Structures are given as C-alpha cells and as structure tokens.
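User: Let's play a game. I give you a shape written as tokens, and you guess the letters that built it. Ready? Here's round one.
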C-alpha cells in the first residue's frame, strides 16, 4: 500500500463519518427523567446513557455487547535515549504473554466477556504466529523522535489504516463495542509528545513516570520530550497524520484507526489510558466527528492523560491510579457502559407505575 493509497482511504472514510446526534442525546437525557429514580441519582451513568443514545441514534440504545479489545503493540526508537529502564525486548515478551493469556488484560477481559485480539503494528523483534495475533507490522519500530520524525508520513497513514481495518474486522465479527489496548516500551514518551503538541503545554507539566522510573530517568525523559517538541516546532498539530509521523508511535496510529472504525459503525469505543488518549487525539484531528463516539474509561496517573481528556472534552468513568496500559482501564470501565445501557433499556418509567411525575427529592 502506498502513502497515497493509505491517505486516500483515510480521506474517503472522513467523508463518510457523521457527528453523533445531539437531539438524540437530549432525548436520552429526557428518558432518564422518566425512569423510576430521583433525577440525576445515577450520576455519570446517566451521561453515558445519553451518549449511547446519541451514538446509536435511538432514545433507548442497544446494549453494546459483545465487545473486543484490540491491543496494538509496537516499539520506539526514542528508547535509545534511556527514557525507560525496561529493554525493548519486553514488548515482544509481553505480546507472547497476551497470546498465552497471562497478562492483566487477559484476566480482566475474561471476567467481563471481552474478546482479546493482539496486533503487531511495529514490534522490533520477530514474533511467532498465534491465533490471537494479527502479525502485520507496518515496520519494525519507529525512528528516534528526538533527532527526526518518528516515521514517514506514509508509515503513519498505514498505521492508521491498519487500526481502521482491525476495527472493521472486529465489527464485522459482530462486536458492538471496541476497547483500545497498547503495548510498547517507551510509548508514554511518544504519547506525551503528541499530547503536548496538541495542547501547547510544556513537557514539564505533562511528563509522567511511566513504568515507575526514578528521579534521574524522569528528569531525562522530561528533557527528551521537550527537546523533541522543540525539534518539531512549526508542526501543525491539527494535521493528524503529520502529528503521528513526527512524534508518535505505530500502536498510537493503530488506536487512532480503531477510533475511526467505531465512528464509522456508530458504536462506542472505550479509551484506555494515556497511549489511547494520544491515539484519540490523532483521530480527533483526522475527523472531529470521531470524538462523539469516544468514552473515557479511566484517568491514568500520567499527567498527559488529564490534558488529553480535557482537550477531547471527555470525563473519565474511573480514577483508580492505573498506569499499566494494555486496555485494562477500558476493560474495567466496560461493565459501567453496559450498565448505562441496561438501565435505559430495562428500568420502569413513572408512567409504567402510574405516577404523574418524578419526586423532587434527589435523595429519596
């Protein structure tokens, strides 16, 4: 696939995407006022229910089940700067762990009936084939984003199309909710770069400790991120493909494509942590309409996560001090999204009970 082909696929998709229906969001909120409970007493679940109404264009949205999490894996050239104490080989080792069912995402997804698929978007080490693994890397890792673009524009577009095609396949298999997952040693550095460029915030305010780095590595990582931003000065962050090319990662591109696939099918996509937030930012620049289909699963302890969610206008469902990735936060939030839809579909209304209006006391 050439760069022109990949960008044409993205452009064609964007012309097909439509924003969520604000009138149906309002209708979903009004439906909540008729349910047998004090208005607003289910808090954030009511907002999620209205979002699902807007996404599905139905007052009572369908239950978003079954669900699948796509774990995109890739390596990062910036790791050579010492931004993480973990060696690059851990990415491939964790892919094997996902395929063997031994990772946190496997345990949490199994409990919540979420299918797990693993996608090699750009792992540097060779991977063994496995039934759970889509082994179709765009390239074997990125370049060092400190000294030049992380990848060519062509490869950035191909990574987005890879994620789009993964999402389209999962939807064709019957899934009605997508969840983002990621794996890649060094990917919090790339994600923070993307979010900093998108929000015009300095590295010092957004850099986090990732896998738990010490003070010296944290200071180094902050300097590397700021230097990368300085190198890419003049970048137009609203050019999603260009932003990914300069400062991103192949798995971040895959997540962006997955978000676009959800928007195309008018189904929700639940975002995981800071890596997912970076992918969502890229997707939102490619098509602003994609934002309406996103649900923030949780707030990562990485500072860039909060900045990205604010930029996207999303309120996270959970705040559990998570910083693992893999899709774990999205999987933990999925039962809440199910509950939001189930409440709207299955609760009785005051009309059903012959009550003229809801009580005014919210603490009833």
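Assistant: Ready! My guess for every position:
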């Amino acid at each position: 696939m050439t760069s022109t082909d990949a960008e044409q696929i993205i452009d064609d998709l964007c012309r097909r995407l439509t924003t969520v229906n604000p009138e149906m969001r309002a209708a979903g909120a009004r439906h909540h006022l008729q349910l047998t409970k004090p208005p607003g007493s289910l808090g954030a679940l009511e907002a999620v229910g209205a979002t699902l109404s807007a996404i599905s264009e139905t007052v009572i949205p369908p239950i978003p089940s079954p669900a699948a999490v796509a774990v995109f894996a890739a390596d990062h050239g910036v790791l050579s700067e010492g931004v993480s104490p973990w060696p690059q080989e851990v990415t491939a080792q964790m892919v094997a762990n996902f395929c063997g069912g031994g990772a946190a995402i496997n345990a949490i997804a199994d409990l919540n009936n979420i299918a797990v698929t693993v996608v090699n978007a750009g792992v540097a080490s060779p991977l063994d084939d496995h039934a759970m693994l889509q082994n179709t890397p765009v390239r074997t890792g990125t370049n060092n984003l400190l000294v030049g673009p992380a990848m060519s524009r062509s490869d950035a577009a191909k990574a987005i199309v890879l994620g789009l095609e993964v999402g389209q396949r999962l939807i064709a298999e019957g899934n009605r909710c997508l969840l983002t997952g990621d794996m890649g040693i060094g990917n919090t550095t790339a994600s923070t770069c993307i979010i900093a460029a998108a929000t015009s915030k300095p590295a010092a305010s957004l850099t986090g400790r990732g896998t738990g780095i010490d003070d010296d590595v944290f200071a180094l990582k902050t300097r590397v991120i700021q230097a990368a931003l300085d190198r890419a000065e003049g970048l137009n962050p609203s050019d999603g493909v260009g932003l990914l090319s300069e400062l991103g990662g192949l798995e971040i591109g895959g997540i962006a494509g997955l978000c676009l696939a959800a928007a195309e099918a008018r189904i929700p996509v639940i975002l995981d942590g800071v890596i997912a937030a970076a992918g969502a930012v890229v997707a939102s620049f490619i098509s602003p309409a994609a934002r309406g289909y996103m649900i923030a699963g949780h707030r990562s302890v990485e500072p860039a996560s909060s900045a990205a969610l604010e930029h996207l206008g999303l309120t996270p469902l959970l705040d559990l001090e998570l910083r693992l990735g893999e899709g774990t936060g999205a999987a933990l939030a999925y039962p809440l999204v199910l509950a939001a839809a189930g409440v709207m579909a299955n609760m009785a209304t005051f009309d059903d009970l012959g009550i003229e209006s809801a009580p005014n006391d919210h603490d009833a």
